[in-house]
Amino acid sequence: MVNTSKHPNITLMTYSDIIQFTGVTGEFIITVRKNPRYVDERKCTGCGLCTTKCPISVPDTFNRGIGERKAIYIPFPQAVPKYAVMDKSVCIDCKN
Ligand code: SF4
């Protein structure tokens, strides 16, 4: 994943979904929706400090509910890029 993120001919679009896909080989038209992280990617260093301050714990979906993660979390240790994501569905907006 790290090598892919650094490849000059690849634009890595993480935390995104393909919304529409048309065309044929060599002439694809793809519509991509970039999902909001609610974290400023220019400022996040991936240190994980925010995850230690968050009071909300929920089942860790990356690990199929085994263990917990916080409302703000880094999806998994080797995430590329390593940015935190805020889960707005459980965040209580406590401003920690
Ligand atoms: S504002 Fe939301 S994500 Fe941030 S610490 Fe509070 S509950 Fe967690």
Computed structural class: mainly beta
Number of domains: 1
Number of helices: 2
How do the helices and strands follow one another from N- to C-terminus?
HEEHEEEE
User: How many DSSP-defined strands?
Assistant: 6
Write down the Rg: 16 Å
- What's the helical proportion of residues? 10-25%
For the largest sheet, list the strands in their spatial order: 1-2
| Sheet with the most strands, sense and barrel status | 2 strands, antiparallel
What overall geometry do the principal axes of the alpha carbons give? elongated
- Unreliable parts: none
Which ligands does the model contain, each kind named once? iron/sulfur cluster
Which band does the percent of strand residues land in?
A: 25-35%
- The N- to C-terminal Cα distance equals 31 Å
Q: Mean pLDDT score, rounded?
A: 94
Task: Kindly describe this structure.
By secondary structure, the protein is mainly β. It has one domain. The chain has two helices and six strands; from the N terminus they run αββαββββ. The chain has a two-stranded antiparallel sheet. The radius of gyration is 16 Å and the shape is elongated. Residues 53-54, 56, 71-72, 86, 91-96 line the site of iron/sulfur cluster.
